Amino acid sequence: MMDYQKPIPLKTQDNKPFWDAADQHEMALQKCNSCGHYAHPPGPSCAKCGSQDLTWEQLGSDVKASVYSYIISYRPFLPGFQDDLPLIIAQAELEKAPGVKMMCNILDCKTEDVYVGMPVKMIWQDIAKDRALPQWVPAM
Amino acid sequence: MMGTITDRCAIVGVGESERSRNSGTTPLHMALDAARAALTDAGLEAKDIDGFMSYNENDSCTSHELATYLGVRPKYVKDIHGGGASTEMLVADAVGLIEMGEMNTVMIFRSMNGSSGQQVGRGYDSDMLQTALSGGSYIIPYGSASPSQWFGMFATRHMYETGITKEHLGHVCLSFYEHAQKNPRAFLHGKPLTMEKYLETPDISYPFNIHDSCVELDEANAIIVTASDRAADCRQRPVYIMGLESRQCHPHAHYWEDTSQVAADYVADGLYQSAGVKPEDIDVAAIYDCFSWVVLRQLEAYGFAPRGEVGDFAAEGNLKIGGKLPTNTAGGMLSEGYTHGMNNALELVRQLRHDYKGTERQVKDCELGICTGWAGPDIAGALILRN
Ligand SMILES: [Zn+2]
Predict the structure, then answer these.
(1) Residue A9 CA to chain centroid, in angstroms?
(2) Chain A: nearest CA to B19, how far in angstroms?
(3) What phi and psi, each to the nearest 5 degrees, are found at residue B175?
């Protein structure tokens, strides 16, 4: 864990509740009270309707999704990824919040096994003393 | 809006610098080469240009510098932060300024050390990238930092939905590489591609291999736009601007929240209305091709083949000279060169002027052309030009 070389998510004014929850191995999503859409990535107002009436919804630690799309990266475009190639980078479409797609890696999955529609579940990778990164593995 | 801008302005000159992997010079030097070539092409002098415009990603010289070293003091300079759709958007700006009487003649250029200079995916600090990209903290920690990875996410989903295959992507590459073999100035001239070779080339970011990606080079391009009445006095046959349209549409571009829509979907209707023509009227095309798949997605958006059939449209040879829609006839960004889209516009102008008449490069009797730009899925611009 001490030698984690990859980028660590930067907390900002807009995304802090998401990453604070992730550090506790929970998922929180910003939601617009005006139009009902989840706002992800979170922002200063709703990207669907412009409303500033936003709340954070806790979705707990049992998060399921399916693979909406993916690529397989054979080159490291950032430091720290050279030992993970080939790397599956995917979009996970959340079961509890359809329409929300999260960029992610699919871990514990051979590149030839990934497919659009594949069920996956969220896990939390501890990447620093008090930081965790949401990741996904195939759901059996 | 139909008819309000049609044929009011024309492109009267185009020019480019040398293209290479390592120019050994600055974007200003290359921009000057391209600008002087465009002036010679048009039969104009630098003092005839009263507006200079450019787009860049903090990787170029300014319009002010270019004008300065052409020895002129124009009324107007403008530099925007932009990418693949900016050629079309700046042409639209030039038309507007000319129409309001503010300008007579505008030069638009793009100059970049796109190979030897710094670029996305190479040498950037990852924390800086997280901050620079909208939603960056949700993509950079997952190793997604290259346009090939971002656009690939759109491509995989679209291929899944429409049945487009890797071979279909290969047909786009093969078509453009074939054009490059007819163009001695194409960077990949002398490097023909076969389907066998394409399919055995390992992927960089599935679904893309090296052939699916543009050849990033050091190069500058320039275009001169003027009012149609002035165009008659220029050296070249004018290429008239029939229609134009652009649109920003996509939320959270770098996060790719929604990979189902692209801005080109929203540009097509307005574009054809503006020009008063239909897709089937178009004889020759310049389609933004940072990646092979982007071409297929735009052919769908601009109505050249129904959704689900664009792959077969390419496989049938329709993108080649002699096909239904000869596209990127100098080789495109996949095999000629890369200036964020402008080199394709130069080629379209030359085709519509019939510059290659009597050679195998000329699209026979072409009169109408489309030029599309794609600044990622979120911003698109397009022009319809005629001879
Ligand atoms: Zn809303």
Answers:
(1) 11
(2) 25
(3) -60, -45
Higher pLDDT, A98 or B130: B130
Task: Output the average pLDDT for chain B.
Answer: 94
Give which of B374, B375, B352, B317 is closest to B179, Cα–Cα.
Answer: B317
Residue type, B186: A
What is the model's pLDDT at position B51? 98
Token pair recorded at residue A14: 């807009």
Within 8 A of B118 by CB-CB distance, chain A residues are: none
Residue B301 falls in which region: left (phi positive, over 0), alpha (psi -120 to 50) or beta: alpha
**Amino acid B133: pLDDT:** 84
Whether B69 sits among the annotated catalytic residues: the reply is no
> Within chain A, which residues score under 50 in pLDDT?
none
Q: Which tokens belong to B6?
A: 């049609």
> What distance in angstroms lies between residue B251's CA and the mean position of ligand 1's atoms?
13
Residue B2, pLDDT above cutoff 50: no
What angle is formed at CA A130 by the lines to CA A126 and CA A136, rounded to 5 degrees? Answer: 30
Question: Which distant-in-sequence residues (6+ apart) come within 8 Å of B90 by Cβ?
Answer: B53, B54, B55, B78, B80, B82, B108
- Would you call B142 a catalytic residue per the annotation? no
